[in-house]
Design goal:
three-stranded antiparallel beta sheet, Tetrahydropterin Synthase, Chain A, four-stranded antiparallel beta sheet, 34% helix, alpha+beta
Amino acid sequence: MATSRHILIPTSHEISRASCSQQEWLSQNGLSLVPVGPLSPVLRLPLRLSFYFPLQVVREYERAIVFRLGHLLPGRARGPGLFFFLPCLDTYHKVDLRLKTLEIPFHQVVTKDMVTLEIDAVCYYRLENASLLLTTLTSISSAIQLLVQTTTKRLLAHRAFSELLLERKSISQEIKVLPLWGDSRARLELRL
């Protein structure tokens, strides 16, 4: 198989290019540093769109936690309203602050007089410190579920079955408000 050899002779345009810097030549000829090829428009589209939308809207019941290059920005969470972020450097996560319900599945509790009960509960919780919760917990609902289960087991294991039936209201008042991470609170309704 024969190979052909070509001799490249520099043109006057290439000679003038050598006299100026590479950045000046690129700007003079309307070129950018983005790769050229069939995927070029696809690669440039997200970059262009991100520069057009650096403002985001956060609703009244949401807060936005902004991370710059992976680090939490100092100060409190952004919102409600418009907030500005740098598209190439920042990422943000919206956290819903409305009251949420969580149904705790049946779990067994052994009382002081060795009676086994199956208890389920409904937990109402509201997040207050969104940035603390987002940076410390991966799954808020599973953490709250486990916390409620262990708290009910601990409180009910020290009482007899007859006490549980007679003092149902006082027990509910005792575990009515559970302190969670940060300023968040949970309210618990037991179903015996």
